[in-house]
Amino acid sequence: MPQWTFPPELEIFLRQAMADIPNATPGKMFGYPGYKVNGKLAVSLFDTGVIVKVGEARAQTLLTTGQVEPFEPMPGRVWKDWVLITGNLETHRPLLAEAVAYVQQETGG
Fold first, then answer.
1. All residues at 6 or more sequence positions from 61 whose CB lies less than 8 Å from its CB, including other chains
2. What is the mean pLDDT of residues 27-34?
3. Among residues of the chain, what percentage have pLDDT more than 90?
4. What is the DSSP secondary structure assignment for residue 89, as one 8-state letter?
5. CATH code where residue 48 lies
6. Largest CA distance in the chain
7. Number of domains in the chain
8. How crowded is residue 22: how many other Cβ atoms within 10 Å of its Cβ?
9. Domain-embedded: residue 1
10. Is 73 part of any domain?
11. pTM over 0.85
């Protein structure tokens, strides 16, 4: 398996931001640090940003603001329920809690 790299400050941000969000446990996706709810990924680092699972409708709404990007882990494979956050992550901190709540509801927890 390839070794994925990411800026260390992203992992620090994610760990600190997730510390106050209940029901999310540390995990990994594609070798990147992330957080799961009931065994399902809700938030993760990916490349130079953070991805969050918010559902297709919410993702489409967020994409129209131009403040997030579609999450496309491989060219031509956009994940419709996810968005990629880059730039000033602090301004998007509420999306982390939103993603945890979404996955909790999705998994019946």
1. none
2. 90
3. 79
4. G
5. 3.90.1150.30
6. 36
7. 1
8. 9
9. no
10. yes
11. yes
Mean pLDDT of 82-106: 95
Q: Which amino acid is present at 15? A: R
Range of the domain at 42: 8-106
At which residue do the structure tokens 């938030």 appear?
43
Is 37 a domain residue?
yes
Q: Rounded CA gap, 79 and 59, in Å?
A: 10
Q: Phi/psi at 55 (nearest 5 deg)?
A: 95, 155
CA 27 vs CA 24, 44, 53, 97: distances in Å: 9, 9, 15, 16
pLDDT, tens digit (0-9, with 9 covering 90-100), for 74-85: 899 999 999 999
Q: In sequence order, which residues have a C-beta less than 8 Å from that of residue 81 and are 6 or more positions away?
A: 53, 54, 55, 56, 59
Q: Which of the 8 DSSP states describes residue 85?
A: E
Any domain includes 55: yes
